[in-house]
Amino acid sequence: MFFPPLPRSVNSGRSAVCSFRLADIKSVFSGNYKVLNRDTLQWSTRVQEKVANPGECGLHNASDNALRFVKENFLADDSVRPVGRSATVVSAEHSYTHLRVQRVQGAGSRSYTVLFLLT
């Protein structure tokens, strides 16, 4: 699981923490990407075969063609949705800046995820 603290939003005035599955993040980055039509300024899903994967690290040995593809196709076609489809924690009073996560063993051998939130 991945728990990024999301700072206070200008639109909502609230800070949040969401939880994401790493497999969901990898799936989006290995999926399709969008391309901008410069004539219409509209984004569309790229239907051509991928020359490179923009979500992949380590492009230091990539060809010029692969680097051009990554430069032009940086917007993923899908989005990563949080576990449960909503934020894990939301606060209008606090702006979370740091987070620590710990898995603990509870009674009856149940595991719990504990979030330590810093403002």
From TrEMBL:
Annotated Sema domain residues: 1-119
Statement: the UniProt record of this protein carries the keyword Glycoprotein: yes
Domain of life according to the entry: Eukaryota
The keyword Glycoprotein belongs to this UniProt entry's keyword annotation: yes
Keywords, ordered alphabetically: Glycoprotein
Signal peptide positions on this chain: none
GO biological process: axon guidance; neural crest cell migration; positive regulation of cell migration; semaphorin-plexin signaling pathway
Protein name per UniProt: Semaphorin-4A-like
Classification of source organism: Eukaryota, Metazoa, Chordata, Craniata, Vertebrata
Gene that specifies this protein: LOC104961648
